[in-house]
Amino acid sequence: MFPSDSMRFAILSLLMVAGATIVCGWALLPLIQRSRTSQPIRDNGPRSHLSKAGTPTFGGLFFLIPIALFAIIGPIVKRDLLPMTVMVVFMLFFGIVGFADDYIKVNISPKGLSVKQKTIWLGMFSIAAAVFYLWISPFAPFILSFTGKAIPVVGIGKVIYALFLVPFLFYMSNSVNITDGVDGLLSSLMAIACIGLFAVSGLLAPVIPHVSSTMTLSLIIAGGCLGFLVFNRHPARIFMGDTGSQALGIAFTLLTVVMGVPYLALITGFVFFFEGFSVVLQVIYFKSTGGKRIFRMSPIHHHFELVGWHEKKIVLVFSLVGIFSSFVGFLLMSYPLFGR
């Protein structure tokens, strides 16, 4: 467990991508500010957000560009990083949909892509990812957490798994997307969650393939998010937009799938999962009760804003929950190795 060469390379990769993200931000921020690409502020959002009007978007490019370049160069330096590159390709597919949504919001209509358009494109890419990992690539097995046994997904099991995997990828990528509603929140949570996946990936090294890729991608995403926090911490100088948040959502979820532990997206990524679930709960309760609400506003971080929490407090508390969730995920996967 914890292969030293892969671990050292992954840590070095985090530092390189974090630094490249900061450099990219310094270079792109003035250009984006001059282009007046400010993100529209929702009329039905918290009134405190009206002060954010004029803050530019497309900040996801700050870390997507270094990550994409790393995904190209990585397999040249280290051949076993090709699976990482494939995951980054799907990350960019989702990022392109987010970029289109951001572009339309800024230049054409504040509503961006329609729900139908986003559902079609993200649904298509979710299907493509499921088909690729189940039928084309040497897919990692499904790992039972309390036994540590790897179960190969074969035959009709692939079809059954795909029926679960497609809506799962779609839901989690969108849940991560809507988490990006408070300065520094998504960047902080994603860095924490990906460091947690890095630790789990090291634990699972004896039973899963592609461990070098999963360890490295976990940390370059964490590095990108930490670098982006230089510009996105409160008060944010730029938002990552759907360009970044959609890409992060699919990357995080695919990492858990390739590691054979998709359920960790719900545990290590508990805050992401509950952000999306809070919207589902609110809508169901609102419709079934004729207009009553469980939360003052959903997703859940807006509820805490409306009860008086400052954005910094939300980021701190949610990050602590994220750290706890990552620790629980690590303990869950370490039980088969150390629990006997």
Relevant terms:
globular, 12 helices, 340 residues, two-stranded antiparallel ribbon, single chain, mainly alpha, 2 strands
Descriptive notes:
The protein has 340 residues and is mainly alpha-helical. The chain has one domain (4-338). The chain has helices at 4-34, 61-77, 82-107, 115-136, 156-179, 185-203, 211-232, 241-258, 264-267, 270-288, 300-306, 311-338, and strands at 142-143, 150-151. A hairpin with a 6-residue loop joins strand 1 and strand 2. Helix 5 (156-179) packs antiparallel against helix 8 and helix 6 (185-203) packs parallel to helix 12. The radius of gyration is 19 Å and the shape is globular.
SSE inventory with pairings:
Blueprint: H1 4-34, H2 61-77, H3 82-107, H4 115-136, E1 142-143, E2 150-151, H5 156-179, H6 185-203, H7 211-232, H8 241-258, H9 264-267, H10 270-288, H11 300-306, H12 311-338
Antiparallel strand pairs: 1-2
Helix pairs in contact: 1-2, 1-7, 2-3, 2-7, 3-4, 3-7, 3-8, 4-5, 5-8, 5-10, 6-7, 6-8, 6-12, 7-8
Please report the number of helical segments: 12
- Please tell me how large the radius of gyration is: 19 Å
Order of helices and strands: HHHHEEHHHHHHHH
How many domains make up the coordinates?
Answer: 1
Q: Number of DSSP strands?
A: 2
In short:
The protein has helices spanning about 5-35, 60-75, 80-105, 115-135, 155-180, 185-205, 210-230, 240-260, 265, 270-290, 300-305, 310-340; strands at about 140-145, 150.
